[in-house]
């Protein structure tokens, strides 16, 4: 059965693939699973029909038969567990790949989201000028730790996995800030992910939605 995911009708990132549906698209492309996309407006995201799929009124969601999922991490994990290609066969390596998925979302992404909030939603607050350097410092601490762990390896733990897919998806959200350029090894790591054919297919599909308004998958 072909799964259906939801994506922004008009993405705030103007087609740069920074919205979280990009992670799901990429995972589906990596495992060779065709998919369909249902575009959702900001208004429709808050209506009961969509909240029945995503209680917090966000994207992406994933529907396949009688299964409905929300949260990009949970969706990518489901895809990786159901299809070969994103999790190692070895049990210990598989567990480590899943750990990296959690690390990307629980450890690396929160300060990055905090930066976006500080700049976009709180930039006019009187305390913003004092808060912003603290947020940037927290991001740099995490990037430094991640850089040390990656070292000169291509991927986080052996072969490319769902852990890398999620981590690269998170790191890409830093591109408008320029912070990633301070860590050439991490910038190269992201570039390796973006060079994968599956990423390119996913990126082109989401970009086509922005440029034409027609769902692609």
Q: Give the name of the CATH architecture of the largest domain.
A: Up-down Bundle
Helix/strand-derived category reads alpha+beta
Query: Which residues form runs of ≥5 with pLDDT under 50?
Result: none
Q: Categorize the overall geometry.
A: globular
Largest sheet, if any? 4 strands, mixed
**Helix segment tally:** 9
Average pLDDT over all residues = 92
Rg measurement, Å:
17 Å
Count the E strands: 4
Strand order of the largest sheet: 2-1-3-4
Question: Helicity level, as a percent range?
Answer: 55-70%
* CATH classification class of the largest domain: Mainly Alpha
Strand content: 5-15%
Q: What is the CATH topology descriptor of the largest domain?
A: Glutathione S-transferase Yfyf (Class Pi), Chain A, domain 2
| Run of helices and strands | EHEHHEEHHHHHH
- Seen as an oligomer or otherwise, the chain set is single chain
Task: Give a quick precis of the structure.
The protein has 217 residues and is α+β, with helices and mostly antiparallel strands. Helix content is 55%, strand content 8%.
Summarize the SSE layout with pairings:
Layout: E1 4-8, H1 21-31, E2 36-40, H2 42-45, H3 48-51, E3 61-64, E4 67-70, H4 72-82, H5 91-120, H6 128-150, H7 162-171, H8 184-194, H9 197-212
Parallel strand pairs: 1-2
Antiparallel strand pairs: 1-3, 3-4
Helix pairs in contact: 1-4, 1-7, 1-9, 5-6, 5-7, 7-8
């Amino acid at each position: 059965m072909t799964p259906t995911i939801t994506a922004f009708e008009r993405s705030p990132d103007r087609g740069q693939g920074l919205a979280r549906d990009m992670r799901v698209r990429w995972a589906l492309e990596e495992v060779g699973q065709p998919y369909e996309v249902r575009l959702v407006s900001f208004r429709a995201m808050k209506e009961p029909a969509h909240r029945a799929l995503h209680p917090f009124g966000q994207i992406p969601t994933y529907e396949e038969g009688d299964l409905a999922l929300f949260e990009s991490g949970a969706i990518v994990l489901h895809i990786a567990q159901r299809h070969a290609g994103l999790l190692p066969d070895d049990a210990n390596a598989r567990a480590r790949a899943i750990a990296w998925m959690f690390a990307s979302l629980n450890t690396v992404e929160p300060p990055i989201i905090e930066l976006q909030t500080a700049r976009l939603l709180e930039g006019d607050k009187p305390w913003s000028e004092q808060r912003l350097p603290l947020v940037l410092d927290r991001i740099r601490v995490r990037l430094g730790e991640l850089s040390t762990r990656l070292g000169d390896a291509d991927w986080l733990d052996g072969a490319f996995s769902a852990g890398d897919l999620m981590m690269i998806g998170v790191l890409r959200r830093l591109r408008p800030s320029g912070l990633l350029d301070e860590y050439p090894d991490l910038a190269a790591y992201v570039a390796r992910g973006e060079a994968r054919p599956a990423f390119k297919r996913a990126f082109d599909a989401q970009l086509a939605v922005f440029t034409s308004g027609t769902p692609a998958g």
